[in-house]
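#structure-requests
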Amino acid sequence: MPTSSERLIGLGYTLGWKLICRVPESWARSVFMAAADIAWRRQGPRVQVLEGNLRRVIGPEATGKQLRALSREGMRSYARYWLEVFRLPVISRERILGDMRCTGEEQTAFAHLAAGRGVIFALPHMGNWEHAGAWIVARGAHGFTTVAERLKPDSVYDKFVAFRESLGMEVLPATGGVSRFGVLAQRLRAGRLVCLLADRDVTGGGVEVEFFGEKARMMSGSAALAVQTGAALMPVTLWYEGSCWGAHIHEEIPVPGEGSRQEKIAVMTQQLAEVFQAGITAHPQDWHMLQRVFTSDLDPARLAASVAKANAAAAADGSDPADGP
């Protein structure tokens, strides 16, 4: 049974979808920006984590005032993401397509799909990945498969799944249920598109990478899928451009020709981290990372469990890759 707190959260999300689509966008935006500013001024735990992450991006030489100004922009960008999530059902297809500024390897990605080769879009938590999903479907991708964290209460998770499925996404749970890796591999072998957020270790089975000069743990599933299926692993970075959205589809990260399976996955995940780092450096305010990703910030017990899990997978040479995505 859901707790009273979970019931309130579920009610809040339900009201959000029902009400925010019905009021003028300018009104809703004012409310969301005000809420972001209040959360920023209160300096709660999640804002503190955000600032800890952003400190790595802008470096120790930046002043406290500069960091606080950036974290305020970050909270406003994050509030915009949620506003657009709630309003996405009423954003026209014309605007979704017309206001996206996409550069890079878009044509290459669609050429792979047209030729029957699977494509993996690996993304950091930047900009609006929900809008990007709607855009790629409207652009002609004929749907894609993704993985989502289980939110509490279950009613909220179910609403998000239903919402994403209405946009043309197939959503698999990050924990429990079917073998995620197996389903994703099937989709890729069938020449489909898979989109995965990859800049934070959600399941505890990720790998350690160098990220902004420190150790961090990231999901290795995107690289593992590319190694397993031969699909094209293409990083995507997102940001906001005024009232529009920006995206860059980066060149494919190839599977190394030498090394064990785990070594190849580690190399490719490190390359992903480097692409993400460049994108975040260019648009730090649009990196919505309010969770810990750097090894030095992680709880020691959780870190030890993650390392043990990763070591066990390496010892088995990835025989149970379902923990990847």
